[in-house]
Write a structure and sequence with these properties.
Two copies of one chain form a homodimer. By secondary structure, chain A is mainly α. Helix content of chain A is 57%, strand content 11%. The first copy, chain A, starts with 10 loop residues before the first helix and ends in a 6-residue tail after the last helix. Chain A binds a DNA duplex through helix 4.
Chain lengths: 107, 107
DNA sequence: TATTAATATCGTAATATTGCAATATATAAA
DNA sequence: TTTATATATTGCAATATTACGATATTAATA
């Protein structure tokens, strides 16, 4: 098979899984850390910094954009990537809610 | 290719990615929620509850155990699964540290 | 209008993940 | 000791992900 059976889970469970999946790659973690540590706009220096080929970085950026964790603003022929703070905080809140709800236990 | 280049990332980045990857499936989210909502021991009723075949559930449990998020205690022919609260809180702290460090931005 | 530079998309090979049937293992009960 | 029950492991087919070369797109600059 190889196909996740999303239809048997609820929206919240699928939503959490999608967020975790986007974050589940060290290159995407590294990209987020790099973007957040630069005060200025980040463009193709991500490629030099991370050490993966340009198409690969572009693909990872697309995945981060797919859940709006980052946004890209066109500045001439460069693109300024930055973290979408609103979404970032929303995600952090969502994950904390999950961790706080999932604590009670028998052992 | 298809192989993540872990060697070009640091330990922390790989560690975070592994944690996110374990959580990146709705069945594993559902299992964690189900385990935490039961006051008593959870055994093979997980299979009935989630709606995936027994070997599939067993595999997901194994992945959750691989980072110690849950632990299983043998009780006769049943196994009592529960959340490893210590690890659970460690992970929550780690993720929050990541989210808090990765906020400063230019846009 | 070329040329250059930055980024995105396409196509594809290699590897990983998901899910399950079949089977193995382990323990309680008959 | 057989049988039944609970869980794990194996093997495999289907699909997804990762990575990158080749190429397309877009915009500044010569």
């Amino acid at each position: 098979m190889g196909l996740t059976k999303t239809q048997i889970f609820n929206t919240r469970q699928n939503q959490l899984a999608i967020i975790f999946k986007v974050l589940a790659h060290p290159a995407r973690i590294a990209i987020l850390q790099y973007i957040s540590n630069q005060k200025e706009c980040i463009c193709n220096d991500i490629v030099d910094e991370i050490g993966l080929a340009q198409p690969t970085i572009s693909q990872h950026l697309k995945e981060l954009k797919s859940i709006d964790l980052i946004q890209g603003e066109i500045e001439g022929k460069k693109i300024c990537y930055c973290i979408n703070l609103k979404k970032w905080q929303e995600v952090q809140t969502l994950l904390n809610a999950f961790f706080n709800q999932t604590k009670i236990n028998c052992c």
